């Protein structure tokens, strides 16, 4: 039985500002509740409202790369066929059934029940929507309280550079009492207050270096979410790159793979949502803190070796996000998906991974 | 003859993140050029791409407040009938005709030719899209250079809090040489480098106070753009409120009205795009640095008095932006528009103002 409903409010790496990363997650076992958490907040309420307007039968993908008279690409192009039965256009019917009013009111009602935002890193494309939506916590008909959580480098940056009464009103003030910024501890289990059956463990990872000083690392996070009753687990990543290799550098992403292999049975690992910003054709020096399809396969190879399962990572669902929508004739997400499938097929133990794209506007039920 | 093509990439005051303020302006007299400037950058490339997909005949307004099976409200509800002949759904045909490739490529081509962003103030909903779009300046097929301009409080905040290698990579670095942050002088004429026939004058205005200390003012800007050949002029505002009245407070918005009355003939004042975030029903203590419909009418009355024209502000086009899309049964923009028309009709000299809404996805040719 599936455990997680993951709605892709946004899933690209820009530069289009309306589809940046935000994943809204609800538990399958609580059909009678709207409660959710989000991983990142690049977009939000605007995306929710558009999803509420979808015709669920129209299983196409908004895409700016096709024939402009076409109404979008069929979703089958973006999903592994094994995962197709697990996706819904927009939100599941059970959620629609619990909402009243017009689209704006319904969207605000869904927003009201987002209890926690887990932010991977404080880059604009992962926080902008969440910030712009935030005044809705004071909207009388849909009052709410929210936590914004992350590793200390994220939370301290949000306090200093965002909720500082200059870039945004200091709505996180204790005096207002509705928006709490809260630091998590690296690699320590945090129990979600919104969904208490979820254990959430953050891991710090590398995400390139500063423009102004190439010797200073930029950090990001990944989150491992485990249902503490069923042990079913998903891994959700923000931006990241492979581990740095200097003599004083720590292994970071490697620790994530070790943790999974040591703590999560392969059959409980329901999906990995991970960035793959670039095509394999992008020069290594131009990845700027991101993965490419070949680098992602290297990481999956590491995970495969740590599990050391005779069948390899058989039937693991890998869902890629944060593809950079570059100037191309063809949708870059389809280029990268093809690369992952072709190159993955040649790697021992990765042949039976399913690769799909975290397409904006769809819900994965896994 | 009209002078300005103003495309509303976004025109609300949130909380929906996909429609925040950005106005792209091109000169009517340069049909053979894509060159444009933007006032604010709440949204950008994503909005441009969607506008390129529009069917120009489908003159409806995306709206989350109507019947959810309806395809949007007719645009006539949002525009004064005198302005209707001057609006186009999406972009004018002359722009479409100059573009090649798929929608993504066309959108990046338009983006390439945005030479300058004039930012009214550094709040997230006025800058987020511009920041998230910014890596496209390095896209090989559509390389570009851009300036981000504003009064010192805006530019210094962007340097310190946004392009700081923490919230966003420091793409404004001189080493990269493509994105220049540039401070303007208050009330001094600045000649646009992108459109040299435009003189642009920024004015500092009030925009509430800090949450953490009610005694510290928050600032915003308005821009007066004048074609220095025809003298035709538009006033474009960001967020603002009426002047503060304390003994040590300066008159700010009042200086804007004085400047217009002293420097721009009423027949050359082609339009005022101004925020009207709130309905007249909102308590004065809950305006939080914004106008309401009655406050806006007070300001127009001041302008009317300064012009002291026997016909009042006859045929002046006032286009309202930044309406807060609150939890309501009816589109708040229509509520406020109705208030402005009803209350305006009762004020001497304001009866013949035309009131319209800066609806996302439309171009005003004025």
Automatic annotation (TrEMBL), chains A, B:
GO terms for molecular function: 3',5'-cyclic-AMP phosphodiesterase activity; 3',5'-cyclic-GMP phosphodiesterase activity. Pfam families: PDEase_II. This is 3',5'-cyclic-nucleotide phosphodiesterase pde1. InterPro entries: Pdiesterase2, RibonucZ/Hydroxyglut_hydro. CDD domains: class_II_PDE_MBL-fold. SUPFAM superfamilies: Metallo-hydrolase/oxidoreductase. One of its GO terms (biological process) is negative regulation of glucose mediated signaling pathway. The gene is PDE1.
């Amino acid at each position: 039985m599936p455990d997680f409903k993951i709605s892709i409010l946004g899933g690209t790496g820009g530069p289009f500002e309306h589809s940046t990363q935000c994943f809204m997650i609800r538990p399958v076992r609580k059909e009678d509740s709207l409660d959710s958490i989000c991983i990142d907040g690049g977009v939000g309420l605007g995306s929710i409202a558009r999803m509420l307007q979808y015709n669920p039968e129209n299983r196409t993908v908004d895409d700016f790369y096709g024939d402009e008279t076409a109404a979008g690409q069929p979703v089958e192009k973006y999903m592994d066929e094994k995962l197709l039965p697990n996706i819904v256009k927009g939100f599941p019917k059970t959620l629609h059934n619990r909402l009243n009013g017009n689209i704006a009111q319904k969207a605000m009602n869904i927003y009201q029940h987002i209890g926690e935002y887990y932010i991977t890193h404080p880059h604009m494309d992962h926080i902008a929507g969440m910030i712009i939506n935030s005044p809705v916590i004071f909207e009388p008909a849909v009052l709410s309280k929210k936590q914004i959580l992350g590793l200390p480098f994220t939370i301290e940056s949000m306090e200093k550079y965002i909720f500082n009464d200059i870039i945004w009103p200091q709505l996180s003030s204790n005096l207002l009492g509705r928006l709490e910024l809260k630091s998590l501890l690296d690699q320590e289990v945090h129990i979600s207050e919104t969904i208490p059956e979820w254990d959430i463990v953050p891991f710090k990872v590398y995400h390139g270096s500063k423009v102004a000083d190439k010797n200073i690392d930029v950090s990001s996070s990944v989150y491992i979410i485990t249902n503490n009753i069923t042990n079913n687990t998903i891994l959700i990543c923000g931006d990241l790159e492979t581990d740095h290799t200097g003599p004083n550098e720590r292994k970071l992403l490697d620790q994530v793979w070790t943790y999974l292999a040591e703590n999560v049975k392969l059959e409980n690992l329901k999906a990995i949502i991970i960035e793959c910003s670039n095509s394999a054709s992008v020069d290594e020096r131009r990845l700027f803190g991101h993965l490419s399809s070949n680098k992602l396969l290297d990481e999956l190879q590491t995970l495969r070796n740590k599990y050391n399962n005779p069948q390899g990572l058989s039937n693991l669902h890998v869902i890629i996000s944060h593809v950079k929508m570059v100037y191309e004739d063809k949708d870059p997400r389809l280029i990268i998906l093809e690369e992952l499938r072709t190159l993955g097929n040649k790697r021992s133990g990765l042949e039976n991974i399913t690769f799909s794209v975290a397409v904006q506007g769809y819900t994965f039920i896994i």
